[in-house]
């Protein structure tokens, strides 16, 4: 079930971030810690700005199993799905809902993101187009965009 992220959901979201990064993105503990800290810092910054844009979570039996954050309706900064729920349509549902919400609100007429290397096939299948070469970063960092 999709719903808007609320203040009381952030503890579960932080745990989801850590589980997902350790299982799906990071190859070393050092890389995991770097990525987790980076994402949590970005999440906290988004909260401090009043959650400008949108944050949607996907819950199964009251457990947050995935979430997406699109800052300012154009910067898809986070999409995480627990490993046990990947390849079950959770990510697709989150992206679809976010794109529908962002389409009339994006000041750039598109949504942009930097994907981890392992998620790039997912974004391609969702209609995003790679816009340049990736940069060296733990987990990878590949630019994509979806133009409305």
Features:
148 residues; alpha+beta; four-stranded antiparallel sheet; three-stranded antiparallel sheet; 4 helices; 28% strand
Map the helices and strands.
Elements: E1 2-4, H1 10-25, H2 29-48, E2 53-60, E3 63-71, E4 75-81, H3 90-102, E5 110-115, H4 120-125, E6 129-130, E7 142-147
Number of helices: 4
What is the makeup of the main sheet? 4 strands, antiparallel
Helix % is 25-40%
Q: What is the first-to-last residue Cα distance?
A: 25 Å
Mean pLDDT: 93
Strand order of the largest sheet: 1-2-3-4
Rounded Rg: 14 Å
The low-confidence runs, each spanning 5 or more residues with pLDDT under 50, are none
Q: Identify the overall geometry.
A: globular
**Total strand count, please?**
7
Strand portion: 25-35%
Structural class: alpha+beta
Q: What pattern of helices and strands is seen along the backbone? A: EHHEEEHEHEE
Characterise the protein shown here.
With 148 residues, this protein is of the alpha+beta class. It is built from four helices and seven strands, in the order E-H-H-E-E-E-H-E-H-E-E. Strands 1-2-3-4 form a four-stranded antiparallel sheet, with helices on both faces. A three-stranded antiparallel sheet has the order 5-7-6. A hairpin with a 3-residue loop joins strand 3 (63-71) and strand 4 (75-81). Helix 1 (10-25) packs antiparallel against helix 2.
Short description:
It contains four helices and seven strands; from the N terminus they run βααβββαβαββ.
């Amino acid at each position: 079930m999709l719903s808007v992220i609320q203040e009381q959901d952030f503890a579960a979201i932080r745990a989801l971030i850590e589980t997902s990064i350790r299982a799906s993105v990071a190859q070393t503990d050092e890389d995991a810690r770097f990525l987790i800290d980076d994402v949590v810092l970005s999440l906290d910054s988004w909260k401090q700005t009043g959650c400008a844009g949108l944050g949607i979570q996907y819950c199964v039996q009251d457990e947050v199993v995935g979430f997406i954050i699109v800052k300012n309706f154009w910067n898809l900064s986070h999409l995480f799905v627990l490993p046990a729920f990947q390849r079950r349509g959770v990510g697709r549902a989150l992206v679809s809902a976010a794109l529908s919400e962002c389409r009339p609100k994006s000041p750039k007429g598109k949504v942009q993101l930097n994907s981890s290397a392992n998620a790039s096939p997912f974004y391609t299948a969702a209609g995003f187009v790679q816009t340049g070469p990736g940069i060296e970063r733990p987990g990878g960092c590949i630019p994509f965009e979806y133009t409305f």
